[in-house]
Design brief:
By secondary structure, the chain is of the alpha+beta class. It has 2 domains: 5-90, no CATH class; 109-369, 2-Layer Sandwich (BirA Bifunctional Protein, domain 2), CATH 3.30.930.10. The chain is built from 13 helices and 10 strands. The protein has helices spanning 5-17, 21-32, 38-44, 51-80, 84-90, 109-123, 137-140, 165-170, 211-219, 259-273, 323-328, 345-353, 366-369, and strands at residues 127-128, 134-136, 160-161, 203-205, 224-233, 244-254, 280-284, 290-299, 312-321, 337-344. Strands 1-5-6-10-9-8-7 form a 7-stranded mixed β-sheet, with helices on both faces. A 3-stranded antiparallel β-sheet has the order 2-4-3. A hairpin with a 5-residue loop joins strand 7 and strand 8. It is rod-shaped, with a radius of gyration of 41 Å. It starts with a helix and ends with a helix. Bound molecules: phenylalanine. Phenylalanine (PHE) binds next to strand 8, strand 9 and strand 10.
């Protein structure tokens, strides 16, 4: 029998160095394979060793055998759970590596602007309310002192909806604006039959946020201050009109709220929301639900398009709330008075950022949206 002593040492080294479970299994097979395993054969060959040497030879072999058993078991465990060394090299973090920039989105400029509006008016003590976009004719027109045959209705080309009893409860459009206070009137659930006192009352997409004046006054006692931002709809489309656009309504009612107070609030809002140097003008305007009524125009600023240079854009309708409207909401017009206003959100932003076409807000062109 050849002395395999040096071989055993090399097996020892190979087991310790085995890189994978497969490699280890192969070495194990080489050693302990039933037919040709080196250790198996060595143990068998003990028969041929002269009696005098057999005991010592057997002891040596058994020591090696135990060593290998233990080593293999140990190495198998190590390979199953990587050692600190392997972890160190595999999980190395290169802190100098430059990672690609993560893209972060941001709010569309309209909701962003509306948040600013809520903040600015919040500082002036105004509550924020939201109401349904699907409105009744009653709230959108009648209670606002715009009777059925009034020509003022023509100024707001209305999207009418089918009005069946079924439709009335199916119009649960989600409301705009997440951060609502108790000023949320009309309910997040949308309209209900109880909102329609008159069976003749037709449904429409609100043409203005002014029905929120009614909803708020019917559910809150004066003195009160509220704004109501949201979407409105009119059959209109050109550079300064879109069939869906945003307004925010404002309402302040008290015992001695005057037109001077209204002007102060308007001017403060325009200067903080658009620009401290914004040019604007008040002129008289007609809205059946205010008396007197005013409109505020803003001048296109820093504009390089000659066609708009020096031109005015109508941005706000406002005025002192008409006594009939107060009466419609159960408020005594001899005791209380106040003002209401409706700002066109897109138009304010157009003036602020010199955007020539209102339709750009809704085309989803990232080159446009990323500028803000
Ligand atoms: N609702 C009017 C419009 O959309 C604006 C307005 C609001 C006018 C409040 C007066 C008072 O044109």
């Amino acid at each position: 029998m050849t002395d395999p002593h040096s071989n055993w040492e090399s097996f020892d080294a190979r087991i310790r160095a085995a890189k994978t479970a497969d490699e280890l299994a192969a070495i194990e097979q080489e050693l302990f394979g039933r037919k040709a395993g080196a250790m198996t054969l060595a143990l068998k060959s003990l028969h041929d060793v002269p009696d005098a040497e057999r005991k010592a030879a057997a002891a040596t072999l058994n020591t090696w055998k135990r060593t290998f058993d233990e080593l293999i078991q140990l190495r198998r465990k190590e390979l199953a759970s990587p050692s600190d060394e392997t972890l160190k090299s595999a999980d190395r973090v290169d802190v100098t590596l430059e990672l690609p920039q993560r893209e972060r989105g941001h709010l569309h400029l309209i909701p962003e602007f509306i948040r600013e509006v809520e903040e600015v008016f919040g500082r002036l003590g105004f509550d924020v309310a939201a109401g349904p976009e699907v409105e009744t004719e009653e709230f959108n027109f009648n209670l606002l002192n715009i009777p059925r045959d009034h020509p003022a209705r023509d100024a707001q080309d209305t999207f009418w909806l089918k009005t069946s009893k079924k439709d009335m409860t199916a119009t649960s459009l989600p409301l705009q604006g997440e951060r609502l206070s108790e000023g949320n009137v009309g309910g997040r659930k949308g309209l209900h039959d109880r909102d329609r006192k008159n069976p003749e009352d037709r449904l429409l997409l609100r043409t203005q946020t002014s029905p929120m004046q009614i909803r708020y006054m019917q559910s809150h006692k004066p003195p009160l201050r509220v704004i109501a931002p949201g979407k409105v709809y009119r059959k209109d489309s050109d550079a300064t009109h879109s069939p869906m656009f945003h307004q925010f309504e404002g309402l302040m009612i008290g015992e001695d709220v005057t037109l001077a107070n209204m002007k102060a609030v308007m001017i403060e809002a325009i200067r903080t929301l658009v620009s401290p140097t914004a040019e604007f003008r008040f002129r008289t305007g007609f809205f059946p639900f205010v008396e007197p009524g005013l409109e505020v125009d803003m001048r296109w600023q820093g504009d390089d398009a000659a066609s708009r240079e020096g031109k005015w854009l109508e941005v706000v309708g406002c005025g002192m709330v008409h006594p009939n409207v107060l009466k419609n909401c159960g408020i005594d017009p001899k005791k209380f008075q106040g003002f209401a206003f409706g700002f066109g959100v897109e138009r304010m932003i157009m003036i602020k950022h010199q955007i020539p076409d209102l339709r750009a807000f809704f085309q989803g062109d990232l080159r446009f949206l990323r500028q803000f």
